[in-house]
Write a structure and sequence with these properties.
The chain is an all-alpha fold. The chain contains 2 helices and no strands.
């Protein structure tokens, strides 16, 4: 399930990226919170499937 790995990594990026952009003053707080929420949901949906798959 390489799709689960890609989705989990995208969720992780959506969790870390907006916070860094907010700290740099590049985005406002409401869009940052929305992106963090989307990243968290994506991470918690995809990461268990990724971690459950056997090693290649």
């Amino acid at each position: 399930m390489k799709t689960a790995r890609l989705l989990a990594l995208a969720g992780l990026l959506l969790t870390v990226g907006p916070a860094a952009l907010f700290a740099a003053g590049l985005i406002a707080e409401p869009p940052m919170k929305l992106l963090l929420l989307a990243g968290m949901a994506l991470w918690f949906a995809a990461a268990p499937r990724w971690l459950r798959e056997p090693a290649e």
